[in-house]
Amino acid sequence: MIYSTHRYLLMTLDPVHIGTGGARLGRVDLSIVREPGTKLPKIPGTSLSGAIRQYAARRYGKPRCAGQGQPREGREGHCAQPTCPICYTFGAITGERSYSGVVSIGDARLLLFPVYSMAGPVWVTSPSALADFGIEEQEVDNDKAKWKGITDQNYLNLGWLMVEKGGDLNLNDLPPAIPATIRERIVLISNPLFSQVVNSNLEVRTSVSINPDTGAAEEGALFTYEAIPRATFLWMDVVVDDHQKAFPITGKQYNPQTGENDDGEALDTTWNSPADVITAGLEWAEHLGIGGMGTRGFGRVRSWEVQQ
Ligand SMILES: [Zn+2]
Q1: Contact criterion met (CB below 8 Å) for 282 and 7
Q2: Gap between the terminal Cα atoms of the chain
Q3: How many Å apart are CA 62 and CA 37, to the nearest integer?
Q4: Could you tell me where the beta strands, DSSP code E, fall in the chain?
Q5: Is this model's pTM higher than 0.85 or not?
Q6: Distance from the CA of 64 to the center of ligand 1, in angstroms?
Q7: CA–centroid distance, residue 54 to ligand 1 (Å)
Q8: Backbone conformation region of residue 171, classed left if phi is above 0, alpha if psi is from -120 to 50, else beta
Q9: What's the gap in Å between 87 CA and the centre of ligand 1?
Q10: Long-range CB contacts (within 8 A, 24+) of 64-71
Q11: Burial class of residue 205 (count of CB atoms within 10 Å of its CB; 0-12, 13-18, 19+)
Q12: 113 within 8 A of 123, measured Cβ to Cβ
């Protein structure tokens, strides 16, 4: 096979704000990136790639190979060595030229989105969101909802919106990584309703600009920003096109009998392929976050590799 696809399920542990970089649009000062057409929020693959590269570079001991690479004052740029797992995986940019990597990280797209209801938190999804993930043939009437359990009532509110039950939900194909307590609280709504419910239940926060010189709050500098709320499930595909198969495995020698190297360290088999570099970076995103507002403890995302 020339290339392989790895699918990751992501769960936000904090609100995640990946901004459009544009000025005020609508009700908030800083809006998040959305998919054209559906208007559903997404996390762009470029943002994910940047964060994953940054964390993986530190874990592999290649800090200069984090970041975007262009050398400038005080920064030497990517090493671009064939022995570098980070440059091999993501590519490299030096002063003279650029090298392409072997992975391509897709956008993270919504699968399950948390909303408050009178019956407690529920997670909404739609036929299209499920089908894009590979779960086909789920249907629901435009103005109705399907669920199983959750409430004995025939109605359920999703935030401010009241919907009528349109049948029992039968959904058995979700990845086991999604906890049972959440999979029992899924509500299926139509594609247009999904977009409406998601966009009216995004987290909107107010923050204050800090003057970098004084460290004090700027007068009158309150601003609002929107974010994907915590406990949202998204997914992304990472395509590995590694036709050379020349990934530079760690230089240390391991004893195949003991599984240890000369220093008595166990072989860490999670470090030996481009896909492992992605996993290594994602593991740190659970603690250090992606994007965010330059604030600590923001944008943390837990991930699992799942079957497609
Ligand atoms: Zn490098």
Answers
A1: no
A2: 17
A3: 40
A4: 4-12, 42-43, 91-93, 98-100, 103-105, 108-117, 120-125, 144-147, 155-158, 161-168, 186-189, 203-210, 217-227, 233-240, 301-306
A5: yes
A6: 7
A7: 11
A8: beta
A9: 4
A10: 65/92, 68/93, 69/93, 69/94, 69/98, 70/95, 71/95
A11: middle
A12: yes
Q: Quick one: DSSP state of residue 63?
A: G
**Rounded to the nearest whole angstrom, what is the distance from the C-alpha of residue 183 to the centroid of ligand 1?**
41
Between the CA of 245 and the centroid of ligand 1 the distance, in Å, is: 17
* Residue 247 CA to ligand 1 centre (angstroms): 12
Q: List the beta bridge partners of residue 7.
A: 237, 306
308 residues of the chain, pLDDT tens digit each: 678 999 999 999 998 888 776 555 566 777 888 899 999 999 999 989 999 999 999 888 888 898 776 767 767 789 888 888 999 999 998 877 788 999 999 999 999 999 999 999 999 999 999 999 999 989 999 999 999 999 999 999 999 999 999 999 999 889 999 999 999 999 999 999 999 999 999 988 887 776 667 766 666 678 788 889 999 999 999 999 988 888 887 544 445 566 666 666 665 555 788 999 999 999 999 988 886 444 444 789 999 999 87
CA of residue 88 to ligand 1 center, whole Å: 7
- What's the gap in Å between 79 CA and the centre of ligand 1? 4
Distance 75 CA to ligand 1 centre (A): 13
Q: Are 250 and 273 in contact (CB under 8 A)?
A: no
User: With contact defined as beta carbons under 8 Å apart, do 49 and 275 qualify?
Assistant: no
> How many whole angstroms separate alpha carbon 215 and alpha carbon 276?
40
d(CA 230, CA 227): 9
Residue 150 DSSP one-character state: S
Structure tokens at 220: 């009158």
Q: How many helices (H) and strands (E) does the chain have?
A: 6, 15
